Amino acid sequence: MNEVDDIDEEMGLMPLVAPYVEKKKEELQNNSKKILEENEKLKNKLANLTDKILLITEGKTDIKHIKTAFGCLENLDEELLNKIEFYDFNETKTLGYTELQPMLNYLSKLNNNNIIYCWLI
Predict the structure, then answer these.
(1) pLDDT tens profile 91-121
(2) What are residue 58's phi and psi, to 5 degrees?
(3) 100 versus 37: which is more confidently predicted?
(4) CB–CB of 36/75 below 8 Å?
(5) Which residues are CB-neighbours of 9 under 8 A, at least 6 positions away?
(6) Rounded distance, CA 39 to CA 33, Å?
(7) Which of 2, 57, 86, 95 is the S-S candidate for 119 at Cβ 3.0 to 4.6 Å?
(8) How far does the chain reach from its first CA to its final CA, in angstroms?
(9) CB-side exposure of 94: number of CA atoms within 13 Å?
(10) pLDDT, tens digit, for every residue of 74-86?
(11) Domain that holds residue 38
(12) CA 53, 31, 4: angle at the middle one, nearest 5?
């Protein structure tokens, strides 16, 4: 046994179980590689599709919670973070559902490369 991940195939039922454990380990490693590759593809696709990502919420405190959540997340791509813009009301006004829904309908008809996310809570 050279590595921590190696299995002592001589112990107890291990001669029977070891091939299945090894096969599952390889499957998990392959799946992990596929997920990382797909993540990289999506990140590249997003980088090529958008100039900015606009986040809009109904209330003035909603965006504060979202900003805090982004601040707590680790390993976020810096380039992606730089594309995100938060529509912040600065304590002056809020958009309720009745104002926000028509605005989103109009924005959806625009032809642009930006992604607009809206939280209607």
Answers:
(1) 666 677 777 778 777 777 777 667 776 666 5
(2) -70, -50
(3) 37
(4) no
(5) 15, 18
(6) 10
(7) 57
(8) 55
(9) 15
(10) 777 777 778 888 8
(11) 13-49
(12) 120
- Bridge partners (DSSP) of residue 56 are 118
89 and 107 part of one domain: yes
What is each CA distance from 2 to 6, 7, 8, 26, 77, in whole angstroms? 7, 10, 10, 17, 36
Total structural domains within the chain? 2
pLDDT > 70 fraction of the chain, expressed in percent and rounded: 71
Q: Are 107 and 118 in the same domain?
A: yes
| 109, part of any domain | yes
CB atoms within 10 A of CB 63: 20
Q: Give the list of residues 6+ apart from residue 104 with CB closer than 8 angstroms, or none.
A: 56, 116, 118
Cα–Cα distance, 109 to 114 (Å, whole number)? 12
Name the token pair of 32: 């992990």
In eight-state DSSP terms, residue 95 is: -
What does DSSP assign to residue 59? S
CA distances from 16 to 5, 13, 25, 27, 117 (A): 18, 6, 16, 19, 52
